[in-house]
Design a protein that fits this description.
single chain; about 220 residues; Arc Repressor Mutant, subunit A; Rossmann fold; 2 domains; 7-stranded mixed β-sheet; two-stranded antiparallel ribbon; 8 helices; globular; repressor; WH-like_DNA-bd_sf; Tscrpt_rep_Rex
Length: about 220
């Protein structure tokens, strides 16, 4: 029986569900049949009460005294997150970061498949990365239409990121992951997530400094 998809789940919970999915996938690949809430919570880096609260958004999941059926819970979370089927993605900007993302095999095992890689530099066009050939930007709209790509990843310099966002949105891409160090404006109906690695490093630096202060005091 297919469970109905929850209508509203807090964004922070969605992020943790993705972590649970990763842990459950690893357990399933290892042949595990069930997992206790405490073990799943520890592997995901959360407390058991928080885990149970997150999973309550999915409806009844576990059995008291038994735990969770690994494959059943994995499949339910995958449906809720919309990754029960492969999602076609395109990536624009084949610098060091873009090349690393395009060559990472882990995306495919989690329901995301790159179907197009693009760059404006003639020296990069024609390169083979992750089983794909880098194509010129002129081909972007045609590839999006032909593959029905729904997700776009931007790893370009900041000054061209907005124009790439505009082209992706106009071509029909409805979800954009932006690694460029700039805030993008997207039309209604297009979701943009920004990943700023420098900010994350600064947060880590702050936490490390606070830890040193606490150890000294």
């Amino acid at each position: 029986m297919i469970q109905p998809r929850p209508r509203t789940i807090p964004e922070a919970t969605v992020a943790r569900l993705a972590v649970y999915l990763r842990v459950l996938t690893t357990l399933a690949d290892g042949g595990r049949g069930t997992v206790a809430s405490g073990e799943l919570a520890e592997a995901a880096g959360v407390n058991p009460a928080g885990l149970r609260k997150d999973l309550s958004h999915l409806g009844p999941c576990g059995v008291r005294g038994v735990g969770y059926e690994v494959r059943t819970l994995r499949d339910r979370i995958a449906r809720v997150l919309g990754v029960e089927r492969s999602r076609a993605c395109v990536l624009v900007g084949i610098g060091n970061l873009g090349s690393a993302l395009a060559d990472y095999a882990g995306f495919g095992t989690r329901g995301f498949e790159f179907v197009g890689l693009f760059d404006a530099a003639p020296a990069r066009v024609g390169q083979h990365i992750g089983g794909l050939t880098v194509r010129p930007l002129a081909d972007l709209e045609d590839v999006v239409a032909a593959t029905r790509a729904s997700i776009g990843v931007i790893t370009t310099p900041a000054e061209v990121a907005q124009s790439i966002c505009d082209r992706l949105a106009a071509a029909g891409v409805r979800s954009i992951l932006n690694f460029a160090p700039v805030t993008l404006a997207a039309p209604p109906g297009v979701d943009v997530r920004k990943v700023d690695l420098s900010v994350e490093l600064q947060v880590l630096a702050f936490l490390g400094q606070q830890r040193l202060v606490e150890e000294v005091s």
